[in-house]
Amino acid sequence: MTLLNQAQVEQLKEITTHLRQVRQEKSIRIEEIAAQTLIRAGVLHALEEERFEELPEPIFLQGFIRRYADALGLDGNALSHTLISNPVVRQDPKNDRKNSDNKPNTYIPLVVTYILLLVAASAGLLHILNPPQITSESLTPEVNNEQSIVSKTNKLTEK
């Protein structure tokens, strides 16, 4: 899960405590809530036991809280919006390090790529539409040409 700021963690603890108390008062098992809300029982257990590191992103938590509260007969929208009233602080140390170590990116305009693609396509199309002219003489080796000359001269001398 991405890091929540301290205010959001405290708010999430209050919400999950309230949800757990209401569920226990109504004598509803977590498995029943899981079946009704289509939220895995493991996620619901992690929510109630405040194991927030096992939970998905905050945007998913909002939906889980809303559906969980609705299943208990509470106002799910109001509860889920209290979690987002404090903005999420995303801290990704890998991203900070990666940005500082990178060399500046070379920028190749997209137009250059399109022009090169058009030139290559045009050359290929020109080659396909105008193939080189192939004659029977160009296909026969020089040895055959010499033999044909000799045979022609022999025919002329015989006459």
TrEMBL record:
One Pfam family for this entry, by name? HTH_25
Is the keyword Lyase assigned to this protein? Answer: no
Q: Any transmembrane segments, and where?
A: 107-129
GO MF terms listed in the record are: DNA binding
Keywords, ordered alphabetically? Membrane, Transmembrane, Transmembrane helix
InterPro entries, A to Z: Bact_Cytoskel_RodZ, Lambda_DNA-bd_dom_sf
Under PANTHER family, the record lists: CYTOSKELETON PROTEIN RODZ, PTHR34475
Name the UniProt record assigns to this protein: Transcriptional regulator, XRE family
The taxonomic lineage of its organism, from the top, reads: Bacteria, Bacillati, Cyanobacteriota, Cyanophyceae, Nostocales
